[in-house]
Amino acid sequence: MSELASTWADRFEQWVSSHDAAEQARRRRQFQRFAATGFPGPADEAWHYTDLAAQADAGYQLAGADVAGAEEASTPIAALPGCALLVYRNGVLDRAASSAAAFDGPALAASAAAGSDDDGTQDDGGIDALNAAYASGGLVYTVAAGQRAAQQLQVVLQSQAGDTPLMSHQRHRIVLGAQAEATVLLQFVGHGGPRLTTHVIEVTLAAGARLHLHRLSSETTGATLLTRLDARLDRDAQLHLSGVAVGGGLGRHRADVRLDGSGAELHATSLQVPASGAHVDDLVRVVHAAPHGTSRIVARGIVDAHAKAIFNGRVVVRPGAQKTDSEQRLANLLLSRKAEVNAKPDLEIHADDVKCAHGATVGQLDAVALAYLRSRGIPQAEARALLLRAFATETLERLGWPALQALIAERLGLPADELDLAFGDAE
Amino acid sequence: MAASPDAAATQNIREVTEMVASRKLYSAGFITDIEADKVPPGLSEDVIRLISAKKDEPEWLLNFRLKAYRRWLTMTEPEWANVHYAKVDYQSISYYSQPKSMKDGPKSLDEVDPKLLETYKKLGIPLREQEMLAGVQNVAVDVVFDSVSVGTTFKKKLAEAGVIFCPLSEAVKTHPELVKKYLGSVVPFADNFYAALNTAVFTEGSFVYIPKGTRCPMELSTYFRINERNTGQFERTLIIADEGSHVSYLEGCTAPQRDENQLHAAVVELVALDDAEIKYSTVQNWYPGDEEGRGGIYNFVTKRGDCRGPRSKISWTQVETGSAITWKYPSCILRGDDSVGEFYSVALTNHRQQADTGTKMIHVGKRTKSTIVSKGIAAGRGQQSYRGLVRMLDSAEGARNYTQCDSLLIGDQCGAHTFPYTEVRNPSATLEHEATTSKISDDQLFYCRARGIGEEEAVSMIVNGFCKDVFKELPMEFAVEAQKLLAVSLEGAVG
User: Is B424 part of the contact surface with chain A (CB cutoff 8 Å)?
Assistant: First the structure.
């Protein structure tokens, strides 16, 4: 752990003094917790492959509303058809860019106070404490029991910085009542100079609730994006989680899912396609705390150029969580000598009547398949794209949201429509 | 000769088998009462100098020890392993003990303390018999009793082949150039906390050198045994297989029953040069503590093999049923092109045993291959962890790895955990990892029971079937012992 420079404390004190006394004390406590550990590094098992030590000296300033208003630099937001849209720029809600529909209905509060003091989240190398100390609030999305959200919700979280390194920290909450259903897309975009963004998302699903929660991060160089999901599932609730990482910068995404009620299910899908120079680190940890739970983790990575991809799946079966059915499948394509893949499918099992399996593979494109396609007159580049698309499709198809699938496929350069192959027309 | 060699060999195996099978509690848990020449508890540079002086060591070795000790002082005990235990007080351990009556070293087995021989007899290691049956049994035993070797057999036959097989302390004197060249070259003195401690205070162990193009004429074997109360045993084994040679080494362990925890921090180094092959097999059956988790051995071992030459091969096979806490990762560094690393493991934890074991395969050379087959069995309140690392460096063109680690759970109080680390930096490398965790199949159990097989026996059969992939890699003597050992260790786990 790195010794945290005193400038951090000075800046924090300066900022926190504008709050009321109770708030100050609460945030100060969290800051001290962060200051005690500093930024995590390889010594911390959960951060084995991601070293944030350099972040301590990056000289981040807390982003304010004034910076967020830099309209001319904003990236255009592509709204998915039929979605309610919310746009946050550096942690501040941009009402003009958000669609009015997102504010309809009592279910959605556009901004919230910072997370409560004792939210019970597991310590994550000091980052959760940093987030809690500075948290500026964010999405609070509640769907009442028995309700089904009329629209999918697209939340765009944009980070941007100029020459001054900026940071923003947000806390979000999604609560579904019994038998409620909703779909939420968290889309992380950004551009500009060095910037640190942390997000903590708390999810509570009551009995039988169903949430599709998608994360699409397409940050760019300069970004350090740290997200943390904490989900609690009651009886028979289902969480369909997807995480897609394309683009650059450093991204670390941790999901902690606890199956508290019997029969709860987690279906997690991950696709990592980092750009050159990018570093993406996913940790999905599911805790089976009740019997008859199901968890599926399917992760795929296409790692090329100078990229580094890490996927750590961890299934924990607590004592008494009998009849747990769990499966983890990690597969990676490593396409460059400069790239690196680290896969770690962990199991921690304290009950005997369970079915837990995991598998991990790392390899390259099948030379035979490639040769087959080429022998049928498909040029090397197209054949390669075809195979990559086939590899990614297994995860994309699980999203169950065609518009989102198309958006991701486009970002990947793997268009969803048929490849334009001029069979027979070639000279 | 009283009996034909074959019959005698069979007889010997049967005796060992019966000995293992007949123990209800831990039958090896007796204490031999031999006066020991012991250094007072505690660790300091003085103690290290004393150990070195007692062993009459050259100065370079003493400096090597002191260097390790000074580094050890700056290191902290690792806590990442998934085991929980009362911390070891390193100042309460006596770092050197030597049975007193053997100070001058026995010239032959006749001179060996009769009590000692009796101990081995109880353990079922018929030293005299084996000496008598020289050409038949083909097993040379370098017995380690606490810290001093008491008898080495078959030296003559090995000498004819040019094989050096002797206590490390002897090799320091007779072959200093080999020891100096290879000691600490695979496991550096500051590799980890326990290896540094071992380097500082190691007292005994085996040294094996197989010359160029030689196939070792017999399987080499060392039986370890910890005796004297409160003496941690710090073994140091060094095996060098020169170009084109082949050796199979067996290591088997038992320890007497104790209430206090005993520390064992061994270091094993293997070096395989061009085209050489080393097969290292272990059956570890140290005292695991009683049903409530009192007593038992702490087994914190660093084992590493270095495939230095092209086409070399190192194969680790282990059956781990003993020890209260196990912390052990026999590893292979696949440096030479086309070199091969293998790891076959059966680890069983019953009662309150905890094991964090696995392997590391570091692929450096081109077309290197590694295979990992790990079978973990957890019963009672045992905690079982597989922790494995497969790393393919960017130079490892065309490297391949296959890993299979399965866990079997018996009872609802135990735990089985898997932590596989995979790190790949070469696009032409291929890595596959498969793992399953399940309990003993009710169908299989029912099938056996319906055919009149008792529950305990049925469980034992199923467990043996589960471990078959590993047992078939064991040398014959060990395979028999290992199966029985599993059955004995599982007693009381069902029903």
Answer: yes
